[in-house]
């Protein structure tokens, strides 16, 4: 098999082309295509479908998909490019079509040059590309009676991991589900757009759904939302139920979601979260839960002696978390919460942590940054939203492994895992499915938003498909 990058030396100019040749479009991640050379056509055309424009009005882009192998609709290569024009093109059968025009590098036998390509559906054509005279220029002479004057390539390249590894970074369309304009949302937009992606902030509460078997959709402000390459959920605790319903809809459509609905739901339910971590044998403070007021003394006894923590199940950012320094104080707090018909946990207070915890930021199964958070003077809670401070910290292998296991237990691609350092090893306090980026980026001096986009780009790369016997593609 011959591949474009296996050519040691560029062919001499001008190139002689027959009426059909093998070419590459490396800018688009298309290493092997059969092209028809047609000097009767002025413009060049590339087979494309699901063509959709996106991006800003000042820098519009187009994304589309390609079936590079005729008859193999299971192999789909997603592409994107900047729009340089939109023009009417009349085909050989007299039909006129308004097409997007892009520019890409054309590579033939080690020689490359930029060409303009119009995008159109050529699925009925054996050649997925047409080379017109405008793209040929002085670099090419055409022998119309010949075929394959240049080295043949092979479709086998699409069946190896090489296609994913060498694929160019294509522009993605990413949705951030968020009701707030805060640092984290702003950083995700800033980083995504700096990479050439289109990042749209969608207010979760303004989404609505069409739920059916054939065409499930998500709508926003009266319009169907476009197909996103990825969704980054930043769903607030107050709308967890509706937010996760929207996420389930995106999952039904087949959109890649950084954090899935099940993981978000489980992480927000502190009782269920602790049960999941206990099942996975992840270290955590001793925790107890009861519904009946008659069980207050037994509940405290299960956790141990005071001081202890009483924590609302719906608590966030340190709100609804109380330190009871005596048994009497614990009973009073529990009675007060029960009087409000609130659900709560009673939890062991880890004295040796001394008001400090560790936030580990896990992306795609790796701890990418960690920081030590220290509570404000006189406050046992270390949350930054409550005046705590943060510094970068080196964690142990045991702490790293614990954070990774905790994120994996909830199936989260992005997680903030909060640990306490205790005398008998790290204990997980909480797994946050919408961790803030401001504190961890400032403390670690790392581009956390960039690391998240690295993971997203890796996840949405085209995957190789299984080879078929009729796929050799190098036939004469």
Largest sheet: 7 strands, mixed
Shape: elongated
Q: What is the CA-atom radius of gyration, in angstroms?
A: 29 Å
- Rounded mean pLDDT is 85
Arrangement of strands in the largest sheet:
2-3-11-4-10-9-8
In the CATH hierarchy, what is the class of the domain at 4-169? Mainly Beta
Q: Which CATH architecture of the domain at 4-169 would you pick?
A: Beta Barrel
Low-confidence stretches: 1-8, 472-476
- Beta-strand content: 25-35%
Fraction of residues in helix: 10-25%
The named CATH superfamily of the domain at 4-169: Acid Proteases
Structural class: alpha+beta
Number of helices: 11
Task: Say what the CATH topology of the domain at 4-169 is.
Answer: Cathepsin D, subunit A, domain 1
Task: State the total count of DSSP E strands.
Answer: 28
First-residue to last-residue Cα separation: 14 Å
Description:
One of its GO terms (cellular component) is ribosome. In the C-terminal section; belongs to the RimK family. One of its GO terms (molecular function) is metal ion binding. It comes from Donghicola tyrosinivorans. The chain has 476 residues and is α+β, with helices and mostly antiparallel strands. Among the domains are: 166 residues, Acid Proteases (Cathepsin D, subunit A, domain 1, Beta Barrel); 95 residues, Rossmann fold (3-Layer(aba) Sandwich), CATH 3.40.50; 64 residues, 2-Layer Sandwich (Dna Ligase, domain 1). It contains eleven helices and 28 strands. The strands form seven sheets. It has a seven-stranded mixed beta sheet. It has a five-stranded antiparallel beta sheet with strand order 26-25-24-27-28, with helices on both faces. Strand 27 and strand 28 form a beta hairpin. Helix 4 packs antiparallel against helix 5. The N terminus and C terminus are likely disordered.
């Amino acid at each position: 098999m011959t591949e474009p990058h296996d050519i040691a030396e560029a062919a001499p100019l001008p190139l002689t082309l027959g009426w059909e040749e093998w070419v590459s479009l490396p800018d688009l991640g298309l290493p092997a295509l059969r092209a028809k050379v047609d000097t009767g056509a002025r413009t060049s055309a590339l087979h494309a479908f699901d063509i959709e424009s996106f991006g800003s009005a000042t820098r519009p882009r187009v994304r589309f998909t390609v079936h590079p192998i005729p008859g193999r609709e299971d192999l789909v290569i997603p592409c994107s490019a900047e729009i340089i024009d939109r023009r009417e093109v009349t085909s050989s059968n007299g039909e006129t079509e308004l097409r997007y025009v892009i520019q890409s590098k054309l590579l033939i036998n080690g020689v490359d040059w930029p060409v303009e390509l119009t995008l159109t559906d050529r699925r009925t054509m054996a050649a997925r590309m047409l080379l017109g005279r405008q793209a040929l220029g002085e670099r090419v002479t055409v022998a119309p009676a010949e075929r394959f004057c240049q080295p043949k390539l092979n479709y086998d390249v699409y069946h190896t991991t090489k296609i994913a590894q060498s694929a160019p970074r294509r522009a993605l369309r990413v949705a951030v589900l968020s009701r707030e304009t805060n640092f984290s949302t702003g950083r995700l937009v800033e980083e995504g757009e700096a990479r050439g992606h289109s990042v749209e902030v969608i207010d979760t509460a303004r989404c609505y759904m069409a739920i059916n078997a054939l065409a499930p959709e998500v709508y926003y402000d009266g319009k169907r939302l476009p197909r996103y390459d990825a969704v980054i959920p930043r769903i607030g605790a107050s709308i967890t139920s509706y937010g996760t319903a929207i996420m389930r809809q995106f999952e039904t459509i087949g959109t890649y979601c950084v954090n899935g609905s099940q993981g978000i739901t489980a992480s927000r339910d502190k009782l269920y979260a602790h049960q999941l971590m206990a099942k996975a044998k992840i270290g955590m403070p001793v925790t107890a839960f009861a519904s009946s007021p008659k069980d207050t003394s037994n509940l405290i006894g299960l956790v141990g002696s005071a001081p202890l923590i009483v924590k609302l199940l719906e608590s966030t950012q340190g709100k609804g978390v109380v330190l009871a320094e005596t048994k009497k104080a614990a009973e009073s707090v529990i009675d007060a919460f029960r009087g409000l018909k609130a659900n709560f946990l009673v939890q062991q207070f880890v004295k040796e942590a001394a008001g400090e915890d560790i936030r580990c930021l896990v992306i795609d199964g790796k701890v990418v940054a960690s920081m030590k958070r220290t509570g404000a003077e006189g406050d046992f809670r270390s949350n930054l939203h409550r005046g705590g401070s943060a510094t970068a910290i080196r964690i142990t292998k045991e702490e790293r492994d614990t954070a990774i296991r905790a994120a994996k237990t909830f199936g989260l691609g992005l997680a903030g895992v909060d640990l306490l350092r205790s005398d008998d090893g790290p204990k997980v306090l909480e797994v946050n499915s919408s961790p803030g980026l401001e504190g961890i980026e400032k403390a670690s001096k790392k581009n956390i938003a960039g690391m998240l986009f690295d993971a997203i780009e890796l996840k949405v790369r085209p995957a190789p498909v299984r080879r078929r016997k009729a796929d050799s593609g190098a036939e004469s």
